[in-house]
Amino acid sequence: SVPAAPSILRRSRALRGGKRVRFAQVTVYYFARRQGFTCVPSAGGSSLGMAPRHHRARRYSLSQFAHLRQVSHRQHLRQHLRREKLRARRLTQNGTVPSAEAAGLTLADVSDDDLDVGQVEVGDYFYLQPLPTKRRRALLRASGVRRIDAEERQELRALRLSREQCGCLCRLTCEPRTCACSQAGIQCQ
């Protein structure tokens, strides 16, 4: 009997050469914001997208990029905390009905001193959060999108509804005449 060749998974690091990938730079591509049509937000219409081609590219060292990212995350956190503080100030004591004077408050009325940014570790906190429809529309308008396609709302709603129903209703055996999966050319789920 011929002995089996040793597995490449079991070779020592020295035999494999110990090669490692090292990165020295990060290239960041900047795209203009467009109405999406390629993603499905969890609620509402006006999905966010980007232009097909970037308009600018920048190269950063790893340390520069890490610093820029931390600064950006801190700014996002500060804006989020500012919105939360404003929302809290707008509510009356029972927490349900905004008062007349509180309704006139803006983000400019919340100073950095009112925020507890130092209490939150940016790296532990930062993650992408869904944006409400009004904020997505405001971002699109601020980015120069003049006409927001209203039909997208119905298309996105139909997609969300279709994703709620997955698979077919077959029990034990597939009935190709009535099976939605089979009729769509998909193996019965």
Automatic annotation (TrEMBL):
UniProt keyword rRNA processing, yes or no: no
Cellular localisation: Nucleus
Gene Ontology cellular-component annotations: nucleus
One Pfam match: CSRNP_N
Location of the Cysteine/serine-rich nuclear protein N-terminal domain: 19-189
One MF annotation (Gene Ontology) recorded for this entry: DNA-binding transcription factor activity, RNA polymerase II-specific
Domain of life: Eukaryota
Record key words, sorted: Activator, Apoptosis, DNA-binding, Nucleus, Transcription, Transcription regulation
Single GO BP term: apoptotic process
Family: Belongs to the AXUD1 family.
Name of the featured protein: CSRN2 protein
Organism: Certhia brachydactyla
